[in-house]
Amino acid sequence: MAWFRKPQYTTLRATPPRDVIPEGLWFKCTECVNFIYRKDFERNLMVCPKCGAHFKMSAMERIAMLADEGTWEEFNAHIRPTDALKFCDSKPYEKRLKDAMSKGDANEAVRTGRCKIDGHTVLLSVMDFNFIGGSMGSVVGERVTRLMERACTDRLPVISVATSGGARMQESILSLMQMAKTSAACAMLARERIPYISVLTDPTTAGVMASFASLGDVIVAEPGALIGFAGPRVIQQTINQILPRGFQRSDFVLAHGFVDIVVERKYLKATLARLVSFFWDEPKSTAKVVPMAL
Amino acid sequence: MAMTTFEFEKPIVDLEARLAELRQREAAGEDVASELHVAEMELQKTRESIYRNLTPHQRVLIARHFDRPHSLDYIRALFEQFTELHGDRQFRDDPSVVCGFGFFQGRPMAVIGQQKGKDVKENVARNFGMMHPEGYRKALRVMKLADKFRRPIAIFIDTPGAYPGIGAEERGQAEAIARNIMEMFTLNVPIVVLIIGEGASGGALGIGVGDRVLMLENAWYSVISPEGCASILWRDAKMAPVAAANLKLTATDLLQLGIIDDIIAEPLGGAHRDPLVAIENVRVALEQALNELTPLAPDVLRRLRHAKYRAMGKFIEEVSETAEAAAGDTTPGPTSRPPHSRKP
Rounded to the nearest 5°, which phi and psi values hold at A137? Predict the structure, then answer.
């Protein structure tokens, strides 16, 4: 008998099929259909390095990008949503909330807090599209309103980064009233002469656009963002014709006079800091002011 | 003239037909007195049982009835020497909203109302009560005029929504609505909002911030129309009755939620069955609201208005360490930090 024997079977090592790209390593740009190495894409702030298309960022990613490192301090995270109306569509709102909370790093569709932006202390509100389409319910309204109220007492400028499909239907009339609540807070900011800069990112529509997002002293938009009141699908159904290219995109809105500037993401932080200093910094002169001789 | 009736009214319509037939026979000399009496009793009972138990969606249908009194019906009946003022001074006059001044029981005041038509032709002219940005701007212009001369404002809401169209977007529908909402908090005069039919979303709220918000019994007010909600959340517009129930859009629901201040009763079966009664009820409600609000000083009015909307919304406020830290704001203890290293 032999000492060892050749096995009577063959072992096939499981190898991944070659044409499948490992999950998450590559990002396919939906605009230019190029594959981009995900790390490059992320290093480029979720902007396609090939075509410049701006993709959505979560609130935490946005804060990481805007706030000076280690300066972010969140407020009112303890305010949580509740299903006050017992709303139930394909699944109960209660369940929808739980799913949304377990999905990403969002605890609601907005995070609010204080941070420094290039050294300027500001109050910052950042919406998160991953949380039920960035929809505004009672929590979004309350957090944004409290932030603006705090801006008045602490005398700090407010920056809001919006992304939202509109009011949260599952909170029905309560969410509609958040438009009134946040707009009232904007009126207060204006009265107190607190600078308020509103940044519109893809997409900002309906209830949020028809309230605090439209009421900034300066309105900044990211390139290519969908900005408007009604969604393009609703408009198309109503008027029954194909919408023109670029309709409701940043450049369109800029051309029609409803945003002040369209700013690429990589320049956003510097732009915001500059805008704040226009309105808020103590004037400091480097050159001696020579009165003009008359 | 036969009035449009709804399917849920069929038992009533049938009984009415039978009653009419009996009356004819009675006129012809037949003795049907007892039958007539029974039929009348039954009709009354059926009416009560149907109209007192309307589902939210049935109310939505009633709120949209063509013959329901619209803004101009109330304005013409309640405001003497009503004088319409046109145009937003920027683009054009929006016919879907009527603005002007008139005397309400001798009191000069501003009136604004979203206007629907009674038939298709009129509806097309009025754009079905769907406002464009210039409509909101016209309304704001007239509200500011009222503010300037210290006149109270009455606003009639009846719209299926702000118009979703290319022109509306080009001219800043969202901005117009947002600005109106904000500016309405700065007005120094009493604002009474009367929701008389449909109160759809931002389209309604764009002229709907008030010191008193009163609502007719069968009107509806919500963040979205039941059909819109059904087609988005259920992907089927036919689910509108279910959406209507979920949205809590009836006057009773909204009173309970503290969104409106009072309900104005309608005649049995809806305002269209007896418009004069509905108009009279609106008159009484408006008069009462104005009597309550007129004595208030401008800053008190503004403060109360702000406080009223400030309190709206339902959420849970967990009292935790983070809450105390945030509330006390003593230590700059960060409650959460953004991930400075990105996810793999």
Answer: -110, -160
> pLDDT tens digits, chain B, 344 residues: what are they?
467 889 999 999 999 999 999 989 888 888 888 888 998 999 999 999 999 999 999 999 999 999 999 999 999 999 999 999 999 999 999 999 999 999 999 999 999 999 999 889 999 999 999 999 999 999 999 999 999 999 999 999 999 999 999 999 999 999 999 999 999 999 999 999 999 999 999 999 999 999 999 999 999 999 999 999 998 898 888 999 999 999 999 999 999 999 999 999 999 999 999 999 999 999 999 999 999 999 999 999 999 999 999 999 999 998 765 544 444 444 444 444 444 444 33
CA nearest to A37 within chain B: B344
pTM as predicted: 0.89
Return d(Cα B278, Cα B194) in angstroms, integer. 12
> Is the peptide bond preceding residue B11 cis, with omega within 30 degrees of 0?
no
Residues whose CB falls within 8 Å of the CB of residue B153, separated by 6 or more in sequence, listed in order: B109, B110, B111, B112, B143, B146, B187, B189, B190, B191, B192
Q: B3: closest CA among B280, B269, B278, B282?
A: B269
> What is the token pair recorded at A56?
């959505």
Which among B154, B101, B157 has a CA at the least distance from the CA of B131?
Answer: B157
CB contact under 8 A, B179 and A214: yes
Report chain A residues whose CB lies below 8 A from the CB of B336. Answer: 72, 74, 77, 111
- Taking CA atoms, B255 is separated from A285, B111, B217, B249, B288, in Å, by 58, 24, 11, 10, 18
Distance CA A294, CA B30 (A): 109
Mutating which of A139, A177, A200, A226 best tests the B interface, going by the most B Cβ atoms within 10 A? A177
Residue of A nearest to B201 (CA): A176
Percent helix, strand and coil across chain B, each rounded to 5?
50, 15, 35
What per-residue string of b and e applies to A77-97 under the rule 16 or more CB within 10 Å gives b?
bbbebbbbbebbbeeebeebb
Q: Write phi, then psi, for A197 (nearest 5 degrees).
A: -110, 125
Residue-wise DSSP of B192-207: EEEEEEEEEHHHHHTT
Output the CA–CA distances (angstroms, integers) from residue B38 to A246, B8, B41, B42, B269, in the order listed.
Answer: 68, 22, 5, 6, 21
For residue A32, give both structure tokens. Answer: 């230019």
Identify the helix (H) or strand (E) that includes residue A115. Answer: strand A110-117
Q: How many CB atoms lie within 10 A of CB B105?
A: 12
Determine the Cα–Cα distance for residues A218 and A276; give it in Å rounded to an integer. 10
User: The complex's ipTM?
Assistant: 0.89
Per DSSP, what are the bridge partners of residue B198? B220
- Which chain A residue is nearest to residue B256, measuring alpha carbons? A85
Start-to-end CA distance of chain A, whole Å, equals 118
Q: Tell me if B164 and A230 make a contact (CB, 8 A cut-off).
A: yes
Q: Tell me how close the Cα of A17 comes to any Cα of chain B, in angstroms.
A: 22
For residue B232, the chain A residues in CB contact (below 8 A) are 169
Of A73, A84, A181, the CB nearest to B314: A84
Subunit contact B233:A90, Cβ cutoff 8 A: yes
